[in-house]
Structure formats: C-alpha cells, structure tokens
Specification:
This protein is α+β, with helices and mostly antiparallel strands. It has 2 domains: about 90 residues, FAD/NAD(P)-binding domain (3-Layer(bba) Sandwich); about 100 residues, 2-Layer Sandwich (D-Amino Acid Oxidase, Chain A, domain 2), CATH 3.30.9. The chain contains 4 helices and 9 strands, in the order βββαβββαβαββα.
C-alpha cells in the first residue's frame, strides 16, 4: 500500500478508520467499500447546576422505531454534570460537528417528556459526536428496494485481500463492546499471521 508518507509494507492490515472505514476500504479497491457509512451526528446539551439534582440516575426513553437513536436521555457524567442527548440526525459531512445544531428549545421539548420541570433556560449547549451508521436515512431506505437492516457493525477478514481485517460501521454499542471486539480481531490477526 502507498500513502502520503511513502510505501507501507505489512503482513496484516486492520482497517478501523471509524467514519472513514468505507473510504479506506475503497482505497484498497475492496468490494467491502460497498458498505457505505452514513454519518449520524448526535448533539448534546447540559442541565444547569441548579437543576441537576432533579436527575438522580440514568434516564432512558423507549427507543425510536426508526432505530436511529434511543432518543434524548439523561446521563450523569464523571464530572457531576447531567447531559441530555443525543439528538441524532443524518448529516452529509463526516466532519460537521457544528452546523445546524439542535436548539435548546428542541432539547427542552424532548426532555419535558421525561422531566416536565425542565425548560430551555435550564439548558446550555454541550458537545456533538458523529457515529458511523451502515443504514441510510429512512427516506433512502424506502427508495432502495434492496436496502435491508444490518448488524450494528462489520468485523471480518476481507475476502479479496486475505491479510486485511475490516471493521466498518462500528457504532453503539461499539464502545461497550470494545474489549470483545479487540479479542475477536486478535484471533483474526493470529489466524492471518499463522
């Protein structure tokens, strides 16, 4: 493989490029690049200090039928603040963490379903994150008759390049599953190098 730093030689390559794993697979000329990643940004806000005590634990709504997200939920962090989010939606740019962020009023509307005492004035903007989703937006799924629901993520050797392990579309519960994923990838690599 050739990169900007020059030629790279390896006995085994692990593609774990997150949002860009589909693009790395395409650089290899792999048919696995057909597993297109659709970026989904989740915006968060934070409850102001005076209202944090209203939430004593993790609070989750029922999951959305579209499978896009769990919906806005309340999370206590290690820093003793309380986050509301993510408000998830498909975006075009894999690097777009800021444009058209969800308004505090919209956060408050969703938060009131679980905690009626919350108003937009009780919230401040927090961070965003972007997930690597393998499912296209619902309108694209409806337009594509061949679209089907997929597993949370793909972890497998590349059939065209036997020394490459592809990790594509790893989203939630990818972080929770990271130790199990690492053990599985370790087994795949040991089989390649054997």
């Amino acid at each position: 493989m050739t990169s900007a730093a020059g030629e790279i030689e390896t006995r085994c390559l692990i593609n774990s490029a997150g949002l860009f794993a589909d693009e790395v697979a395409a650089l290899l000329g792999s048919k696995m690049a057909a597993h297109k990643i659709y970026p989904v940004r989740g915006d968060y806000c934070e409850i102001v200090r005076g209202k944090r005590d209203l939430v004593c634990g993790l609070v989750y709504p029922m999951p959305h039928a579209d499978g896009l997200s769990l919906g806005a939920h309340f999370t206590h962090t290690l820093w003793a603040n309380v986050l509301i989010g993510p408000m998830a939606r498909y975006i075009e740019d894999k690097n777009d963490y800021e444009s058209n962020r969800v308004t505090l009023e919209e956060f408050a509307r969703h938060a009131k379903l679980l905690l009626p005492e919350i108003d937009a004035t009780d919230l401040v903007p927090a961070h965003s994150g972007i997930r690597a989703k393998l499912l296209p937006p619902p309108n694209a799924q409806a337009a594509n008759l061949h679209s089907k629901r997929m597993a949370d993520f793909i972890i497998e050797p590349n059939p065209e390049f036997p020394n490459v392990v592809q990790l594509i579309g790893i989203e939630s519960p990818g972080l929770t599953s990271a130790p199990a994923i690492a053990e599985h990838v370790d087994r795949l690599v040991n089989e390649i190098l054997a």
